[in-house]
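Task card 7
Instruction: Convert sequence to structure tokens.
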Amino acid sequence: MANSTTKKTAAKKTTAKKTTTKKAAAKKPVAKKATTKKATTKKAAAKKPVAKRPVAKRPAVRPTVAKRPTSSTSKNHASKLAKIFVPEEFDINGYTFKKLGSIIKVDGYVCTIKIDPKAKAGLNDILIIKNKQIFLQIDSFDESGNALAFVVYANTMTTIELNDIVNTSNSNIKVPTTSFNGRVFNAMGIPVDGKGALPAKTKYISIDKKESDIHAINTEYKLHETGIKIIDLICPILTGGKAGLFGGAGVGKTVLIQELINNTPKEEQAIFIGVGERTREGLELVQEMEMTGVLEKTALVFAQMSDLPGARFNIAKVGITMAECVRDINKVNSFVFIDSIFRFVQAGMELSGQLGKTASLGGYQPTLSKEMGSIQSRINSTKNGSITSFQSVFLPADDITDPSAISIFTHLDSKIVLDRNKAAQGYYPAINPLASTSRLFDKKYIGEKHYNTANEVIRILKLHEDLQSICDMMGIDALSPEERNLFKRGNIIKAFLTQPFNVTQVFTGVKGVRVPIERVVDDFSRIVSGEFDDLDPSLFMYKGTLDEIAQLDVSLTKTVVIGMGNINE
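Output:
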């Protein structure tokens, strides 16, 4: 009992201690002091309202203040970025661009673009990656609605990356309708000659112009005089027609084109299209034109050999569209010089391979005939004027049966074939009169005298070629006296078909000449009649007319033919 009483007493004491401790803890003045301090603070805050707000309200206000500025700032920042990098609409060199989508695949110079739901795009539309100044062109669309585009022009210091924003102009390449005389343009129709931008009021037109109405085409056959003897005599050029200059490398195609530009009538417009030109050649051409004063009436468009195939493929349409503007807007005849149309075919072949199209015969694109037709069908005459074209055609390995040459042959009115053997012998222009032909070579178009004289020239040259084979095998003694005369007359004709050019005067020192077609016919009619058979053929080399020979002392130049050459009597 005593023990239990003791335990109860101890328990009571312990309980009392705990209760006392709890009460003591409850009666600690900390809470009261805190309350007093708060009250004091409030009173102090009432006296000093400036000090009260940051202390009492900061925890409550801070979240609200932090949320509002962050939200508004981020929206403003995003809108600023949108204005800088993804503008709603902007202009560059006559093009108005707006957002199309972003790049989701890059394969060399071909890109796949995912189009935004509200954006619209069409075939051949010009696109731009603005910050990188890269221009693209839409080729096709896949089953998902994505656009497949190839690069037309790009800054060499930039690259295409995934997620790049692409903007569209909703139009094809545009070229100026006026103000292009004496200027040099690239494949985008943008001046690159350092003479500044075009006037602000300049109007532009798409190169995707519809083909001419067949009823508006003028089918009248009219002779165009070039001033070059062998062309005007053997293969006359049709006004509003297409003439091809066929030849391999180094036979004089570019020089011949430069002389044709130089001989363009002053009142008419010349447009030079450099497809795959070397930079050096293009620069020399511009400088020579500027020196001779030809540049003032000439517009030049270039896609250099180092440019992308997309640029070289489009450059022909750029130049021809300018020629159409000259004809249809200014009502002036224009001359288009393409050097070389083969590079256009080659660019199409490269582009076709990049786009994954199956190659055709000779490795060329399957759409070769269609692409060539789209270019050639726009070169014609209408009631407003004419577009006459001279196109140099490079022959791979001098093979005139190459698919590229065949695709061009079908569109040409005149075929001017340059011969490497003639060039090696020093006969310039190195045109083969037996291989060159013209649709205009007919009595009703060129007249009876011209027709008969040219036919006689061709007949003698064919005989000369046969007799040359006999001389090579058996010597000239195997020929009869009549055959010897014909053989020598053929040498005279070959020599007189040469001609000094104005554009080569700085290299040869011989002044160039331009001969009227009537004079050409008269001079050759005298030669084929045998009037000059007793003269040395070398006298006729690089002479414009027979008057130049009459001024020489011919008493020392009469010759006889011995063996394989000529000696003075």
